[in-house]
């Protein structure tokens, strides 16, 4: 594959790239191997024919099989975005600043379960859960502490929040306001993917219909006021974690994506208005080549859906931009240092697959939230791949591999079969309500367990190469008094704030929820008046009801 | 026929990870147990209510959110409060080793951490439910008597009454067992000497095979037939399926020695009338 024999199309692509580089230069003047072999941005077959253009094409061009950006990591590395959060807003703020100091390039916030499920820290259902799997955020006050000293015009933040995503987004916007940063400048993501909550993750609050309404309200609001924000992170990660295959991960994620697009169109939004702000979230799993192929297949599939089926005109609407997290469920409690190796392989696959941002799990994943040291090693894993391995020096290096192209095609065709089936059921929402995805996933999870227990599937250190006496690693513990401390802060807040104003904003929200107006401005008002997440979601629970699983 | 083991798999608290719970539930079903899964977001009170309503032997609690130290002991506490603490409670999820001693001290029988084969969990449940079912009943009250086979009561009695100085409480014929028995008092128990009435008496055959000596141990219980039912359920081999009349108007039944490691046990249920009156009458 030499650049001497290139065709017109490739020359055109090169020209476009050169124009782009004039504005944004690459990370290095020249890329070369240790033997000083110069590395081109892209390698292509000697003959670029229609088949190649249709299925593979060029990076940064429809159908984006080879990547969403034209020169990928030569221009800019993926964002190293480590999911973090535990205990109080203070502790998490400290961990954020540590990770940013250590070279992390974007924030990713983990919230505790009461926050994710719209309960204040003093709610009975919150007992034992406050601060355990993420940071406890009850009000704007906590959010201010969480983001203290972090310039929101410079740092992009991803928030893993779903049912109450509108509330946390509103809090983020309100904190930025206080920093003097207008919402138009904010960049980040809210996960905001309720369908996968019903399918695999379990932190839903309201039933599907009102949940979709909240989601499309966010799409509409952000299109106008927070244009650089990813309004949703349509997720396959959790579906895979719950036990699905790679094909199911792609299929169910895209099916959910289709459902969100349909909902937004139904709500009267224009496809090119909201589609550029849709993003995705995939798992970085064990089977190295299948994972690389999975990313490529998904990009091609989404681009085709958006352009062919929905007639989107803006190229940004066709782009499958993805964040990846390495698969937590693949990591073992036994011999935890082995997990560092697993994560490395999984991260490398995601990079070769062309992910836009990446979270690498810590070695103590199966035991507890990460210690500082474990979190640091996880970040170093990305940095070593980025700076020492050379895989970033050219785009989509595995293109043209007989194996990888075959896997890409197979994943696409099998996923399309699933999409067809879900279509016949009436779409993802109907399929979820019928429990279809859940059953498919559960079947697969059981099959995997059976294979592991029979030894057919090997897990090093767990069902082979075990250790007699495992040493006890040091683990992170969350302050058990946190629940009480949060309750005290809540009591103080409720005394300090203007409760009349709170009541007013909550009443306005209730009226809005009963109608059809966009709820984001109303939620913003509630948040600014220091209404708590429990109070805001309490109102919405009243109006929308709660979801009951089948 | 053993009663099928019934298990409640439960997700206490807000944790939404149910892959493990679903896999364990299905695995236990494949192992022949009846399993009810509660679904997500159960309070400890809801779990305990469900467990009692569903009449389960075991509750399996799954928690990956780190709330196990608060939620698991609360389930045990509520079970005790409701007098249902015969239900076995086990747990699993993301639970650090160092938390397990505390959980056990709070009544969680075992914690199954990541990597545990489902078979191990199933085996644990089986062996512990079996044990619990047996110990569900109160233990026997005391040793009612030790039965000793002798060729002749007249020949044997002097050793007991003169050499050991035990009081002879009485003697009678028990035609159904083809024996003549003599009772000697010792503490709260008796020594029962058994003399065969004829060559076909089981005692005659016993003496022929093994000579004179200890024949059986009788345990005083309040409910022979109840116990026999339970024992049969648990697969313990019996000689008598239901109680029959024994000496002193008692209801008795023998268990098979092969289930008791070579010892012949008798269950002995004293008649309603106070035994002591009859003793005095015989003296």
Please characterize this protein's 3D structure.
The complex is a heterodimer of chains A (550) and B (283). With 550 residues, chain A is α/β, with parallel strands linked by helices. Chain A has a domain at 72-454: TIM Barrel (Alpha-Beta Barrel), CATH 3.20.20.240. Chain A is 51% helix and 7% strand. Chain A has a 5-stranded parallel beta sheet with strand order 1-10-9-8-7. In chain A, strands 2-3-4-5-6 form a 5-stranded parallel beta sheet, covered by helices on one side. In chain A, strand 2, helix 4 (89-101) and strand 3 (107-110) form a beta-alpha-beta unit. Chain B has 283 residues and is an alpha/beta fold. Chain B folds into 2 domains: 6-135, Rossmann fold; 142-282, 2,3-Dihydroxybiphenyl 1,2-Dioxygenase, domain 1. Helix content of chain B is 35%, strand content 27%. Chain B has helices at residues 19-30, 44-53, 68-81, 100-105, 118-135, 153-163, 202-210, 224-233, 275-282, and strands at residues 6-10, 34-37, 58-63, 88-93, 110-112, 142-149, 168-174, 179-186, 189-196, 213-220, 244-245, 251-255, 265-269. In chain B, helix 1 crosses helix 5. The longest helix of chain B is centred in the middle third of the chain and has 18 residues, at 118-135. Chain B is elongated, with a radius of gyration of 26 Å. Mean pLDDT of chain B is 91; it is low at 275-283. Classes of the chains: A alpha/beta (550), B alpha/beta (283). Chain A binds chain B through residues 113-114, 116-117, 119, 124-129, 132-133, 197, 201-203, 241-243, 329, 332-334, 366-369, 442, 445-446, 449, 453, 459, 462, 472, 475, 478, 480, 549, and chain B through 13-19, 22-23, 26-27, 39-41, 43, 65-71, 94, 96-98, 113-115, 117-119.
């Amino acid at each position: 594959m030499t650049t001497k024999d290139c065709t017109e199309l490739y020359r055109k692509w090169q020209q476009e790239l050169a124009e782009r580089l004039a504005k944004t230069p690459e990370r290095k003047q020249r890329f070369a191997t240790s033997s000083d072999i110069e590395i081109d941005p892209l390698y292509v077959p000697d003959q670029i024919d229609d088949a190649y253009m249709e299925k593979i094409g060029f990076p940064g061009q429809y159908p984006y099989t080879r990547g969403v950006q034209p020169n990928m990591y030569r221009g800019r590395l993926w964002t190293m975005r480590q999911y973090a959060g535990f205990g109080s807003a203070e502790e998490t703020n400290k961990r954020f600043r540590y990770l940013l100091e250590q070279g992390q390039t974007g924030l990713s916030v983990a919230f505790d379960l009461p926050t994710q499920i719209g309960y204040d820290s003093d709610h009975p259902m919150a007992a034992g859960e406050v601060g355990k799997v993420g940071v406890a955020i009850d009000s704007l006050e906590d959010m201010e502490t969480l983001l203290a000293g972090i310039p929101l015009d410079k740092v992009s933040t991803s928030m893993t929040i779903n049912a109450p995503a509108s509330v946390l987004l509103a809090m983020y916007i309100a904190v930025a306001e206080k920093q003097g940063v207008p919402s138009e400048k904010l960049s980040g993501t809210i996960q905001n993917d309720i369908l996968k909550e019903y399918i695999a993750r379990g932190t839903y609050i309201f039933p599907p219909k009102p949940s979709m309404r909240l989601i499309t309200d966010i799409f509409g609001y952000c299109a106008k006021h927070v244009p650089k924000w990813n309004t949703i992170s349509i997720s396959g990660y959790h579906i895979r974690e719950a036990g699905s295959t790679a094909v199911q991960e792609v299929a169910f994620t895209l099916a959910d994506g289709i459902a969100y697009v349909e909902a937004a169109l139904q709500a009267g939004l224009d496809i090119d208005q909201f589609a550029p702000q849709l993003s995705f979230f995939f798992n970085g799993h064990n089977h190295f080549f299948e994972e690389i192929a999975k990313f490529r297949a998904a990009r091609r599939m989404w681009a085709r859906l958006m352009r062919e089926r929905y007639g989107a005109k803006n190229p940004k609407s066709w782009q499958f931009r993805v964040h990846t997290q390495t698969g937590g469920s693949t990591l073992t409690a036994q011999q935890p240092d082995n997990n560092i190796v697993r994560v490395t392989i999984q991260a490398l696959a995601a990079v070769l697959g062309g992910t836009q941002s990446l979270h690498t799990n810590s070695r103590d994943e199966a035991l507890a939230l990460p210690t500082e040291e474990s979190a640091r090693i996880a970040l170093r894993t990305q940095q070593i791949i980025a700076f020492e391995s050379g895989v970033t020096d050219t785009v989509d290096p595995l293109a043209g591999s007989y194996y990888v192209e075959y896997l890409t095609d197979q994943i696409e065709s099998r996923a399309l079969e699933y999409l067809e089936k879900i279509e016949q059921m009436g779409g993802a929402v109907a399929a979820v309500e019928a429990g279809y995805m859940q059953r498919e996933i559960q079947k697969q999870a059981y099959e995997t367990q059976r294979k592991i227990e029979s030894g057919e599937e090997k897990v090093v250190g767990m069902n082979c190469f075990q250790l007699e006496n495992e040493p006890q690693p040091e683990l992170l513990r969350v302050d058990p008094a946190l629940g009480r401390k949060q309750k005290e802060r809540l009591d103080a807040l409720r005394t300090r704030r203007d409760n009349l104003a709170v009541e007013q904003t909550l009443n306005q929200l209730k009226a809005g929820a009963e109608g059809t107006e966009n709820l984001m401005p109303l939620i913003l008002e509630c948040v600014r008046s220091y209404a708590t997440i429990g109070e805001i979601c309490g109102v919405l629970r009243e109006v929308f009801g709660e979801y009951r699983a089948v | 026929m053993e009663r099928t083991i019934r298990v409640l798999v439960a997700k206490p608290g807000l944790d939404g990870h149910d892959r493990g719970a679903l896999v364990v539930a299905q695995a236990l079903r494949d192992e022949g147990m009846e399993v009810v899964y509660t679904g997500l977001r159960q309070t400890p009170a809801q779990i305990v209510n469900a467990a009692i309503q569903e009449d389960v032997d075991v509750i399996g609690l799954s928690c990956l959110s780190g709330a196990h130290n608060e939620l698991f002991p609360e389930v045990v506490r509520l079970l005790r409060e409701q007098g249902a603490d015969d239900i076995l409670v086990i747990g699993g999820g993301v639970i650090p080793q160092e938390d397990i001693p505390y959980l056990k001290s709070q009544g969680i029988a075992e914690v199954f951490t990541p990597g545990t084969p489902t078979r191990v969990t199933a085996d644990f449940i089986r062996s512990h439910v079996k044990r619990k079912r047996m110990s569900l009943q109160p233990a026997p009250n005391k040793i009612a008597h030790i039965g000793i086979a002798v060729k002749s009561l007249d020949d044997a009695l002097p050793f007991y009454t003169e050499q050991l100085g035990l009081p002879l409480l009485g003697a009678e014929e028990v035609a159904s067992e083809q024996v003549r028995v003599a009772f000697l008092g010792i503490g709260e128990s008796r020594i029962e000497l058994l003399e065969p009435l004829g060559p076909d008496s089981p005692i005659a055959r016993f003496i022929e095979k093994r000579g004179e000596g200890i024949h059986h141990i009788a345990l005083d219980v309040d409910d022979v037939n109840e116990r026999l039912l339970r024992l049969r359920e648990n697969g313990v081999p019996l000689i008598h399926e239901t109680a029959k009349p024994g000496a002193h108007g008692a209801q008795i039944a023998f268990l098979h020695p092969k289930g008791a490691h070579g010892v012949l046990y008798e269950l002995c249920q004293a008649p309603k009338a106070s035994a002591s009156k009859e003793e005095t009458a015989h003296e």
